Amino acid sequence: MFHPASVIFCHQANDTTRPNVEEGITLFSTLLNNKHFLITFVHALEQQKDFAVRDRCSLASLLTIALHGKLEYYTSIMKDLLVDLIDASASKNPKLMLRRTESVVEKMLTNWMSICMYSYLKVRTERSPERQFDSKRSALTRFFFSQETVGEPFFLLLCAIKQQINKGSIDVLTGKARYTLNEEWLLRENIEAKPQVEHFTNSLLNINVSFQGCGMDSLSVRVMNTDTICQVKEKIIEAFYKNLPFSQWPRAEDVDLEWFDSGSNSKLLQDLDNSSVMEDGRKKLNTVFHYQVPEGASLAMSMKDKKENTLERVKDLDTEKYVHLVLPHDELIETKKSHRHSHRKKVLPEIYLTRLLSTKGTLQKFLDDLFQAILSIPPDRPPLAIKYFFDFLEEQADKRGITDPDTLHIWKTNSLPLRFWVNILKNPQFVFDIDKTDHMDACLSVIAQAFIDACSISDLQLGKDSPTNKLLYAKEIPEYKKRVQCYYKQIQEMPPLSEQEMNAHLAEESRKYRNEFNTNLALTEIYNYAKRYRNQVVNALEANPTARRTQLHHKFEQVIALVEDNIYECCSEA
């Protein structure tokens, strides 16, 4: 979440064992802990045209890792850089500040929010007998929820979304489903045109499955006759492994599934085999219906021999050659038409809208609980970091004579809801060890958009041409807006924090993540940026009176000389 390139975790140590290199990196670490050097260093790099947004985000994340043990200092640097950003924005359009993540400090703020708000997602507590978790919470093996965290309602919402999607047919190749929140991912069944086709008979059946080597008794698993064999395998795997994190589950491609009929005969079930049929020039994936698997059938799953070559995932097959539930050409024609007539909104037939609304209604209680948890202040754990930062924003607005309440609302929204919560809503894999399917992602995008609309100061201008995904939660948005405004007001009314209180809180947050990251490798990566822009950094340090007075440019040159093992240069500058 911090570092997009993940170099901290894959970088191989090479010459960092040389004494000169270690000494140079240690000296560089000392410089990074000098406020005048670090701020000058960041500004110098950001002024370079080839220092792209990706570089800025990487540098911010590397600094977060390098300084995570000194969160008070990191916060001080972030605030100083934010003051510079506010000064630049105030002279243009202050409402646009923090709208994107294009500068080092904006990414630093994202990381800071992630660190400070993490405890509101998951809290370490002891498991007690009366709070044993059921299978829906099986992905939470390291952390257990307290009653005040956002994690539990979020996880239950994810479970509800998955359960609702799985209630109907899902096209394994396109990812589209009968039940969804997202119109673009809706499986549009042409029931009238194909009344006899098994695609559209959503009957469920129970099968009895044993899993060789799993150490568990056979289980009854519910599947659909439209399920491909891959989808059946995934449902069986989930039934057997639901109490383990998703990262420990076997893949559907790694297991075999065998069906035993009433006699002693058995048949290996596969998505594609000699029995597969052709439909409109495409090979049709085998389903439960294709094999005529009956209710109560006995099946056995086993791990494949590791020496066997595992085929590519079914969902990655070419839709020009294979088909599951729907042929893609009708949808492509509709897409092309919509592009030609983009000024006209394609009306969603009532039968499809009903299914969207049905899914929304099923999930509404879970969504309300989640939004309530996000926009509530736990009485025993008030969000000190948010109070501190929102007060900082109000102070900066006051200093610049910015009295428009909408501007402050936008700043706060861009800092917390849009910068942190929306990111979490769209990326639950940052919090839980779960499988986020493409369809789950599509549903979460609709939910995240509803949250974004709730935080906006603008009223939704909706009409018959508005996107269905916007119309879906139009009725709830006004109430959600009130919750957001109430939350901001409650934060504002909290007692102000002194610097000493905030520093103590930040120090405690730092201690929670001690030894979580490889600080030395982060320093090495930051040094690589310093080396790349050596001349520009030196010039910036020489142009800064405070930096020049404390000889920071000479110390920086000494770092370069030590790490690059240029003994002559190092000695000549000493």
Automatic annotation (TrEMBL):
<dbReference type="GO" id="GO:0030334">
    <property type="term" value="P:regulation of cell migration"/>
</dbReference>
<dbReference type="GO" id="GO:0002116">
    <property type="term" value="C:semaphorin receptor complex"/>
</dbReference>
<protein>
    <recommendedName>
        <fullName>Plexin cytoplasmic RasGAP domain-containing protein</fullName>
    </recommendedName>
</protein>
<dbReference type="GO" id="GO:0017154">
    <property type="term" value="F:semaphorin receptor activity"/>
</dbReference>
<dbReference type="InterPro" id="IPR046800">
    <property type="entry name" value="Plexin_RBD"/>
</dbReference>
<dbReference type="GO" id="GO:0007162">
    <property type="term" value="P:negative regulation of cell adhesion"/>
</dbReference>
<dbReference type="GO" id="GO:0005886">
    <property type="term" value="C:plasma membrane"/>
</dbReference>
<dbReference type="InterPro" id="IPR008936">
    <property type="entry name" value="Rho_GTPase_activation_prot"/>
</dbReference>
<dbReference type="InterPro" id="IPR013548">
    <property type="entry name" value="Plexin_cytoplasmic_RasGAP_dom"/>
</dbReference>
<feature type="domain" description="Plexin cytoplasmic RhoGTPase-binding">
    <location>
        <begin position="181"/>
        <end position="301"/>
    </location>
</feature>
<feature type="domain" description="Plexin cytoplasmic RasGAP">
    <location>
        <begin position="145"/>
        <end position="537"/>
    </location>
</feature>
<feature type="domain" description="Plexin cytoplasmic RasGAP">
    <location>
        <begin position="11"/>
        <end position="124"/>
    </location>
</feature>
<dbReference type="Pfam" id="PF20170">
    <property type="entry name" value="Plexin_RBD"/>
</dbReference>
<dbReference type="GO" id="GO:0050772">
    <property type="term" value="P:positive regulation of axonogenesis"/>
</dbReference>
<dbReference type="GO" id="GO:0008360">
    <property type="term" value="P:regulation of cell shape"/>
</dbReference>
<dbReference type="GO" id="GO:0043542">
    <property type="term" value="P:endothelial cell migration"/>
</dbReference>
<dbReference type="Pfam" id="PF08337">
    <property type="entry name" value="Plexin_cytopl"/>
</dbReference>
<dbReference type="InterPro" id="IPR031148">
    <property type="entry name" value="Plexin"/>
</dbReference>
